[in-house]
């Protein structure tokens, strides 16, 4: 495990506030719909001013791109007649579980597991306990429990777990996932299609630690013939240019470094995150290309009326430094055709 500098860790945990504030801002300005984010905002985050239009558009494209892939994942599971599991690593104050649970495909979810540093899971668990709106979607309140000093929350589908993802997963994650129910069955079934979400977290980890994490999940799902393991990463890349230098300098001033970005100089290099672990397919696309090719024209039109955005060239420059990478490992050859469909569909009018 690399970099356990306590100040650096606190700075990494704080990046969650930025993500949550950006989401709240985009929701308040009408870019995205997220009725849950306000209940999960870290302390003090409410007081921050809305983000500039460029950031709001970026949040919209990121959110739209990831939503499309996750929704399609749920749709493919439904078509296959299966429930699925989603594991969000470095979940922070993300609201995706509640958005799915309130949506049309809630029944497709067998498990939704979130992992973050204990400091962040404690705050999130408390926020969940305080909010009726969040609590009601966890199911019967008698089935919701806090444990391990308030760092952990279990409910029938949703689980919130504390772990440092840089530690050896056999020692950190494995005991947490071992069991959540009285019958002693493991929290994650290796027979259900399972999607790993890494939204803006791998940049803060050394590549060897992220590799060990992905390899551990690959191993976990390798023994079951029907096993399907998906991975979705949203991250910066290509930071060796002038834009990247400014970003590194800004983050350094906040005691944050980005060791996980280093190996990825180009968009073409990103799928190796998954292909080197034997994934059946993997692809990557920049946010710039998502905006151009995967967002419906009517949506682009709608968001263009929300705020005045002068800096269109600057927007492209920012968006071409962020990408979504996704891949799937399908153990059974017969099932591979279905899962090869997982990806972006061309946009409509
Ligand atoms: C930028 S935030 C993103 C939060 C969320 N995924 C989102 O997109 O809204 C990064 C999150 O990853 C978590 N994180 C980073 N490194 C971690 C590690 N080694 N172990 C556990 N969590 C980590 C941070 O605490 C933070 O909550």
UniProtKB/TrEMBL annotation:
Pfam families: LCM. It catalyses: [phosphatase 2A protein]-C-terminal L-leucine + S-adenosyl-L-methionine = [phosphatase 2A protein]-C-terminal L-leucine methyl ester + S-adenosyl-L-homocysteine. GO terms for biological process: methylation. GO terms for molecular function: protein C-terminal leucine carboxyl O-methyltransferase activity. Its EC number is 2.1.1.233. It is an enzyme of class 2 (transferase). InterPro entries: LCMT1, Ppm1/Ppm2/Tcmp, SAM-dependent_MTases_sf. Keywords: Methyltransferase, S-adenosyl-L-methionine, Transferase. S-adenosyl-L-methionine binds at residues 62, 90, 164-165, 199. It comes from the Eukaryota. Methylates the carboxyl group of the C-terminal leucine residue of protein phosphatase 2A catalytic subunits to form alpha-leucine ester residues. Belongs to the methyltransferase superfamily. LCMT family. This is Leucine carboxyl methyltransferase 1. It comes from Phlebiopsis gigantea (strain 11061_1 CR5-6).
């Amino acid at each position: 495990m690399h970099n356990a500098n306590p100040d650096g860790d606190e700075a990494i945990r704080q990046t969650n506030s930025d993500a949550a504030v950006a989401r709240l801002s985009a929701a308040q300005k009408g870019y995205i719909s997220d009725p849950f984010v306000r209940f999960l905002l870290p302390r003090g985050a409410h007081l921050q001013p809305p983000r500039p239009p460029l950031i709001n558009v970026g949040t919209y494209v990121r959110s739209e791109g990831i939503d499309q892939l996750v929704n399609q994942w749920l749709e493919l599971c439904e078509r296959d007649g299966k429930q699925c599991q989603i594991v969000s690593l470095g979940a922070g104050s993300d609201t995706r579980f509640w958005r799915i649970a309130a949506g049309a495909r809630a029944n497709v979810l067998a498990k939704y597991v979130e992992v973050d540093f204990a400091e962040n899971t404690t705050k999130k668990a408390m926020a969940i306990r305080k909010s009726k709106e969040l609590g009601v979607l966890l199911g019967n309140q008698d089935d919701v429990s806090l444990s391990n000093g308030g760092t952990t929350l279990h409910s029938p589908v949703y689980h919130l777990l504390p772990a440092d993802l840089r530690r050896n997963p056999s020692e950190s994650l494995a005991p947490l996932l071992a069991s959540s129910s009285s019958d002693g069955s493991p929290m994650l079934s290796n027979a259900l299609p399972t999607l790993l979400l890494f939204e803006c977290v791998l940049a803060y980890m050394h590549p060897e630690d992220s590799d060990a994490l992905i390899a551990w999940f690959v191993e976990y799902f390798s023994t079951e013939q029907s096993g399907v393991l998906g991975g979705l990463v949203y991250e910066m890349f290509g930071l060796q240019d002038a834009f990247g230098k400014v970003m590194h300098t800004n983050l350094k001033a906040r005691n944050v470094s980005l060791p996980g970005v280093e190996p990825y100089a180009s968009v073409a290099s990103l799928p190796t995150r998954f292909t080197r672990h034997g994934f059946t397919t993997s692809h990557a696309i920049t946010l710039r290309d998502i905006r151009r090719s995967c967002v419906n024209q009517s949506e682009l039109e709608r968001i263009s009326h929300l705020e005045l955005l002068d800096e269109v060239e600057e927007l492209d420059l920012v968006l071409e430094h962020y990408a979504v990478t996704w891949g799937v490992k399908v153990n059974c050859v017969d099932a591979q055709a279905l899962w090869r469909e997982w990806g972006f569909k061309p946009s409509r009018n």
